[in-house]
Model the fold of this input.
Amino acid sequence: MMAKQWTDLFLWKQFQRGDKNAFTNLVNQYSDVLYGYGQRFSADEELIRDCIQDVFLTLWHRREYLSETTCIKFYLMKALRQRIMRESTKWRTMLPLDNISHDKIDFSIDLEDDSNLTEPAKLLLKTYINKLSPRQREIIYLRFYENLRQDKVAEMMGLNLQSVYNLQRNALLALRKLIDYKSIRDCLIVLPLLAAALL
Done:
C-alpha cells in the first residue's frame, strides 16, 4: 500500500509540473476505473464519457493549483461523482443544485467480480441491495467494495462523519432485515460482514 501511495504521489507531482507523459499515464490508468464507477450513477454512456473527459481536462488546466494527493483514484472518483451530479441534475430541474436530493441519482452495485459468492448467492444479494436507497447502496459500495474509510466516504459524499456512521449503520440494518435467511444459505458469507459492521 505504501509503495502505491509513493508511486501515486510521484506521478501526481510530475503531472502538476506539466509532464505530459505523467498526465497520459493518469488518463490511461484511471479512465476505465472512472467509467466503471460512473456506470453506477448513470446508464447514459455518453454522459459518463463526457464527464470523465471534463474531469481530466479540468485537472490539466488547473494542475498548478491542485493540492497533493497520495490516492489519485479517490481524488478522481470524487471529482467524477461531483461532475455527474451536476450534469445529471441540471437537465432535470431548474432548482439550484443545493436543493437537489442526491437520492434522485440512482446508484448500482455489480457483484460480478465478487468471487467469494456463488452465482445464486450473487443474484439474491443483488436483489436485496437493489431494494436499498441509492445513498445506502452507495455507502455500502464505497465502504465494502472500495474499502474507503468513513472520513473518505464523508468527503466523497459531502456528509459529516456522524452522518456517514448513521447512514452506514442504517443501510446494513435495512439489508439485514431484507435478507430471508431461510432461502439464502449460499449468502451466509455476508452474515459475518453485517455482524462486524454493526458492532
Q: What stands out?
A: The CA atoms of residues 18 and 57 lie 13 Å apart.
